[in-house]
Design a protein that fits this description.
285 residues; alpha/beta; Rossmann fold; 2 domains; five-stranded parallel β-sheet; four-stranded parallel β-sheet; elongated
C-alpha cells in the first residue's frame, strides 16, 4: 500500500495535483491533520486492498508543528505502508498573482497582512517540511498540462498515459472559425475548385477535387512546410502533457480546399503514429 502526502505552499497547485492523482487511481483526502493520518492508514491497511493508493493533502491550515507530521509518517511506515511526501512550491510573485486572479483569501492573511507577507510567512513555516520531502516540484511556470505530465512521470503507470489525440478539422471561414481550434491554417490562397463547373458540386473528399487542389506547386510547398512544422510541434505538445490537439484548416465555404488538405493532413499525422480524428464541419452546408 502507498500513501503520498501532498504538501507545500498555498496557491502552488496542491488541490490540482490531488485531482490529477485521483484521475490515475489515488484515493484523495484534503486537509487531514497528522493525528488522523495514522488512524486512516490503519483503516486502509485493513480494507483488503480497496485503498492501496492514497494521497493526503496537508498544508498550513492544519495549524500543527511539523514534527507531528513526520512522526505520523514514521508510524505509517511501521504499518508496512510506503509513505512518501510531495512538496509543491512556486515563486512569491506567481502565488500572489494566482490569489489575485481567483480572489481567494490566503490562509495566513489577515488585517494588515498583505498576500506577499502571508506567502513569505508560510514559506518560512513550511521550510522544515520541505526539507523532508521526497519530491519537490516548482510550479511557477507550469500549465495544468505540464503539472499533470510531471505527476504522471513520477507516479503514473504506462497505462495512465493517454497520449496525444489529434483532431483534424476542416471548416469554412464564412461560417466562423471553430472556437475549439488550437492551430488554424488558412488555405484560401489555393485555386478554388468552386469556380470549375465539373467540380463545384463535389467536395474535397472526391478524387477529382483532391487532384485539382494538389495539381498546383503552392499546395505541395504548403504541405511540405506544414508537415515540417507539425513534426516539430506534435512531440512537444505530447511532452507538455496535452491530450487533445485540434488542428483546423479553413477555406471560404469548407467544401473543397480545406477538406482536401485536412484529409491529406490527417493521413500524414496518422502515419506519424498519432491517434487522429478527422472531421469536416461545413462540408454539407
Amino acid at each position: 500500500m502507498e500513501i503520498l502526502i501532498i504538501s507545500g505552499l498555498s496557491g502552488s497547485g496542491k488541490s490540482q495535483a490531488a485531482s490529477f492523482l485521483e484521475d490515475i487511481g489515488y484515493y484523495t483526502v484534503d486537509n487531514l491533520p497528522s493525528r488522523m493520518m495514522v488512524k486512516f492508514a490503519e483503516f486502509c491497511v485493513a480494507s483488503g486492498g480497496h485503498y492501496d493508493r492514497v494521497a493526503l493533502v496537508y498544508d498550513v491550515r492544519a495549524g500543527e508543528e511539523f514534527h507531528l507530521l513526520l512522526d505520523a509518517m514514521e508510524k505509517m511506515r511501521a504499518l508496512g505502508v510506503t509513505c512518501r511526501m510531495l512538496f509543491l512550491e512556486a515563486s512569491t510573485e506567481a502565488i500572489v498573482n494566482r490569489y489575485k486572479e481567483t480572489r481567494r483569501i490566503h490562509p495566513l492573511s489577515g488585517e494588515g497582512v498583505s498576500i506577499q507577507q502571508a506567502v513569505q510567512e508560510e514559506r518560512t513555516r513550511m521550510q522544515p517540511i520541505r526539507d523532508f520531502a521526497d519530491f519537490i516540484i516548482n510550479t511557477t511556470s507550469f500549465s495544468s498540462a505540464k503539472l499533470r505530465s510531471e505527476l504522471l512521470n513520477l507516479f503514473g503507470a504506462q497505462s495512465d498515459r493517454q497520449g496525444l489525440n489529434v483532431n483534424v478539422l476542416s471548416f469554412g471561414f464564412k461560417h466562423g472559425i471553430p472556437i475549439e481550434a488550437d492551430l488554424v491554417f488558412d488555405v484560401r490562397f489555393m485555386p478554388n475548385p468552386f469556380y470549375v463547373a465539373d467540380l463545384k458540386h463535389l467536395t474535397g473528399l472526391d478524387r477529382q477535387v483532391r487532384d485539382f487542389v494538389f495539381s498546383f506547386r503552392q499546395t505541395h510547398e504548403f504541405m511540405e512546410q506544414l508537415e515540417k512544422m507539425l513534426s516539430f510541434l506534435l512531440p512537444l505538445y505530447s511532452e507538455e502533457g496535452k491530450t487533445v490537439l485540434v488542428i483546423a484548416v479553413g477555406c471560404t465555404g469548407g467544401h473543397h480546399r480545406s477538406v482536401a488538405v485536412a484529409h491529406e493532413l490527417a493521413d500524414y499525422i496518422t502515419k506519424a503514429g498519432y491517434q487522429v480524428t478527422e472531421n469536416h464541419r461545413d462540408i454539407s452546408r
